[in-house]
Recover the amino acids of this structure.
């Protein structure tokens, strides 16, 4: 019947039809959306009845009559409203993806299912990620398999797209475990980390290693870190808190062991031999100003065992010359003849006094320590390492056995006589355990190694990370090249790891700290 001379529009219409009429004719609407510059009016009550997202939005903006929508096109927003008011909507395949995203934004699950059914009629790389999410959300195995088949065809491209961030954790795990595609472990970690960072933002959580670790807990089990490139693991994984320290140590040991056991190809062996026989060339290691004017091999155990004596440079503290005798511990000094003050037995016991003094001014004559081994980590020597701006040199060590560190060898001056002042500290798990400040030693410009004795020796525990860090002041010095990441002497192994505190170029390949004197527990 007409009311006041007008036909009542409700007559002959059911609830759905009335809702549509109110939407189309903006009857008593109470909220305005500005979508792509166009005003679209609707009713709060209807929107709240179908979407928790709208309810939350209206609660926050209760006094506002106008809401900006920037990521949905006007005609797509209208289709979404049509479904909200009538539970039905007409759309084609080209609109399905856009409508699916709008429904996802406002949490309208029934509309998402409609769009999903339309999209899966023609699955492509453009819609495969949201389809995968829907398939996993509904836990429909047949749909999962169908969509994954399409995903694997363009997996490399899709894993570098933002669509990967939409996938649920279980889907990411299945992709990493699949034998349908070939993914490097580095690529897996990159994708997993970006995925976790995106999820942190969606959940309004701080993007930090603690939260990323929590979100990636089951995912990291699918990544074989021990198969990563050593440099990648060092620079992108070990310097985060995503893995536990004990696992990082274990992975480093596997990486180094694997690297050291790989046989050289014939051409690589030839290149190595040719390089060692060629004249030295200039190197520029990580900010060091290297003038490679001299190359010399560090005496190794095999060399010492095959030669009766090796001539050393003149000791600046004695007019006599020192020579090296062959032995299992690396370079072991024989005191010069005729000097009763320096004549000592080869089995001189370690002096464990309470003093923190180092015998740095006596480079070789005090180096004989009972039951110790010296682990040399470089294969050659160059000259020209600079010490500028108080930048520290640092290297981290993982010992295979518990025992005592008795001394550290440092490189000396390669330019005539020079004096050095050293501030050295040893850290365990990041905490300083021994500090040795303002120690000085002199170098005559020829003698390459200078023993810095640690007295009393410092206790090392097997499989724990220790860091040697040093700030050195003085002239340019020799420095090591062709460093080894794992060194074994007798049955003692030191695994060396780059340390972020080392800002002066020292790392596993080059730099300072050529040797370590270590006594293993019996």
């Amino acid at each position: 019947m007409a009311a006041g001379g007008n036909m009542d529009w409700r007559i002959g219409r059911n609830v759905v039809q009335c809702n549509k009429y109110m939407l189309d004719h903006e009857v008593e609407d109470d909220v305005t959306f500005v979508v792509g510059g166009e005003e679209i009016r609707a009713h709060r009550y209807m929107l709240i009845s179908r979407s928790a997202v709208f309810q939350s939005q209206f609660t926050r903006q209760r006094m506002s009559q106008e809401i900006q929508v920037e990521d949905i096109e006007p005609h797509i927003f209208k289709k979404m409203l049509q479904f909200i008011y009538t539970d039905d909507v007409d759309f084609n395949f080209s609109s399905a993806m856009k409508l699916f995203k709008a429904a996802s934004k406002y949490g309208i699950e029934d509309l998402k299912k409609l769009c999903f059914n339309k999209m899966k009629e023609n699955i492509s790389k453009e819609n495969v990620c949201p389809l995968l999410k829907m398939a996993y959300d509904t836990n429909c195995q047949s749909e999962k398999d169908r969509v994954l088949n399409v995903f694997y065809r363009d997996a490399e491209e899709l894993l570098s797209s933002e669509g990967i961030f939409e996938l649920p954790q279980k889907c990411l795990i299945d992709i990493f475990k699949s034998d349908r595609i070939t993914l490097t472990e580095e690529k897996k970690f990159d994708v997993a980390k970006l995925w976790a960072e995106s999820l942190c933002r969606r959940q309004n959580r701080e993007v930090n290693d603690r939260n990323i670790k929590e979100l990636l807990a089951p995912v990291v089990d699918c990544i074989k870190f021990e198969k990563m490139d050593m440099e990648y693991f060092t620079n992108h994984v070990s310097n985060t808190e995503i893995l536990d320290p004990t696992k990082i140590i274990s992975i480093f040991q596997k990486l180094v062991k694997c690297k050291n056991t790989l046989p050289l190809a014939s051409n690589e062996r030839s290149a190595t031999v040719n390089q060692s026989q060629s004249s030295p060339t200039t190197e520029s290691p990580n900010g060091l100003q290297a003038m490679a004017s001299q190359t010399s091999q560090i005496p190794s155990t095999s060399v010492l065992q095959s030669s009766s004596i090796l001539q050393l440079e003149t000791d600046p503290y004695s007019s006599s010359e020192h020579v090296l005798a062959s032995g299992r511990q690396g370079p072991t000094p024989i005191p010069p003849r005729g000097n009763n003050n320096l004549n000592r037995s080869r089995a001189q016991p370690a002096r464990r006094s309470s003093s923190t003094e180092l015998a740095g001014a006596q480079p070789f004559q005090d180096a004989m320590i009972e039951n110790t081994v010296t682990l040399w980590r470089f294969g050659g020597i160059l000259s020209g390492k600079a010490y500028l701006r108080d930048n520290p040199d640092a290297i981290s060590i993982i010992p295979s056995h518990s025992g005592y560190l008795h001394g550290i060898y440092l490189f000396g001056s390669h330019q005539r006589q020079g004096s050095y002042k050293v501030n050295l500290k040893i850290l365990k798990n990041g905490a300083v355990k021994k500090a040795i400040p303002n120690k000085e030693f002199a170098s005559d410009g020829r003698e390459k190694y200078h023993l810095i004795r640690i007295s009393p020796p410092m206790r090392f525990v097997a499989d724990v990370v220790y860091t040697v860090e040093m700030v050195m002041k003085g002239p340019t010095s020799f420095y090591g090249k062709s460093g080894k990441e794992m060194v074994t002497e007798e049955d003692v192994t030191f695994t060396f790891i780059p340390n972020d505190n080392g800002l002066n170029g020292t790392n596993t390949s080059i730099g300072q700290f050529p040797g370590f004197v270590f006594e293993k527990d019996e």
User: Anything to note?
Assistant: The first strand starts at residue 2 and ends at 3. The CA atoms of residues 133 and 324 lie 70 Å apart. DSSP finds 16 helices and 20 strands in the chain. Residues 184-258 form one domain.
